Amino acid sequence: MKYCIPDCFWPVVDKGSYMGHEAISILNMSDHDIAAQMTIYFEDREKLEGFRLSVPAERTIHFHTCDLKNGHNIPIPRGVGYAAVIECDEPIVVQYTRVDTTQSELGLATTMAVAVD
To answer: What pTM did the predictor assign?
Structure first.
């Protein structure tokens, strides 16, 4: 299965001491560990592949995108809009959350990923 998140963005600027961030949350309800792959797509550059996401059995993991690097040690860039596609052989639940601190009033956006066969 593929899970698509078409609107991802981690702003470059933070106001105050709290750093804005994104999180991709994955819920694994199965009785065994799963391994997922993530590919990042951009409007004006080549895609980034090779992000590996592991989720233990019957657990949820919240991957902060600022901490993720692909197999070539390349991080997801800050200040660039992108889409994420997560692929997994098992059914999972995927949620995306963005905390925007570009203004003094914090903003929170969240969405469920779209599952595509």
So the answer is: 0.89
